[in-house]
Structures are given as structure tokens and as C-alpha cells.
Amino acid sequence: MSKTENEATSPDTTGSQVEAAALSPEQIEDLKTRAAKADENWDRLLRTTADFENFKKRAAREKIDSAQYASASLIQKLLPVLDNFEMALAAAQTATSARKAGAPADEGKLASLQSGVQMVQQQLKNALVETGLEEIDATGKPFDPNFHEAISQQESADQPEGTVLQQMRKGYKIKERLLRPATVIVAKKPAAVNS
User: Fold this and answer.
1) Number of CB atoms found within 10 A of residue 181's CB
2) 114 with 99: CB under 8 angstroms?
3) What CATH code is carried by the domain that includes residue 151?
4) What is the pLDDT tens value at each position of the chain, 195 positions in all?
5) How many Å apart are CA 175 and CA 32, to the nearest integer?
6) How many structural domains does the chain have?
7) Stated pTM of the model
8) Best CA proximity match to 180, nearest among 78, 56, 42
């Protein structure tokens, strides 16, 4: 076998050493700089990819939250309507109980009005409940500033301090988000009587 055939068939073990020896110190330094730059770009790519994945997850969560609470602003606009229905019913009940004498036809009209308002109120409540609305029932429960708004305190020997004595306006939440706190009067200890 000739020398050229032997070189062609044997693996090149000294080729990289020969090439490295053929490179100048400036070229070697340039290669090291480029390798460091490549490593830096790889790290940047990994961080950017991770940031993008986090962004996609956050966007998906926000989309779900947005869909869950999309009706919140509509419900907030409808709450005063619900309040007005309740006030109209209270006024009609007061007029019915205060009116002991009168024409039978007037009583029939008042009862019919009361019945109609109750039906509309119930229809509105059902529609709101279907969207996820929940009433906050505060009467007789401990005051919770997360769900209740105290407008005053009233002395009470019957109820422990901090208990809601009376709910003046209902509070509402949709799923776990508070839309409007319940407006309440809270019990406090009676003042000591000086003798």
C-alpha cells in the first residue's frame, strides 16, 4: 500500500491538531469570542421561550377570568332596578296593610299591582342568579368587612358585639367576586349606666 492510500484510508487524527496549529492566536481568540456569543444567544433564546410560554399561560388565565366575570358590569347596572322593585313591593304591602277600609275594586287593583311587581322581580332575580349572582345575607351574622359595609352601630344587649343587627341594603357577589357590599347596622355593647 502506498503512502497516499494509507493516508486516505486511515482516520484523520492529526487533522484538527494541524488546523488548530495553523490558526493564529487572533483567530483562536476570535473563535472563543464567537463561542461565548453563541452561548449567550442560546441562553437568551431559552429565556425568551420561557417568557413566551408564561405569557401564553397568563393570557389563557385572563381569558378564562374575563369570560367568567363578563356579566359583572351588566349586573351592577341592574342592581338598582332590583332595589326599586323591592321598594315598590314594600310600599304596596304597606299600602295594603294600612288600608283597612276602601272600595273592593281599589283593593283588587292594588293586589294585582303587587302580584305583577312580584312576578317581574322574581323573573329578574332568576335571570341574575343564572349569570352567577348571589345575595349576601348579613342579618344575624358576624360583621365581615369583606362583604359588609357598616353605616352605623346600635347598642344591643341581645346580640354580641360585632353582629349585624339589620341589613339596610342587600349585598351581592358573582361567583367569588364582590359586586356590592351589604349595607348594615352593627351591634355594639350597651353603654354602662352610671349610678
Assistant:
1) 20
2) no
3) 2.30.22.10
4) 445 544 445 455 555 555 556 888 999 999 999 999 999 999 999 999 999 999 999 999 998 888 777 778 777 878 888 888 888 887 777 777 766 555 455 667 777 778 888 888 888 888 888 888 899 989 999 999 999 999 999 998 888 999 999 999 999 998 888 999 999 999 998 887 554
5) 59
6) 1
7) 0.52
8) 78
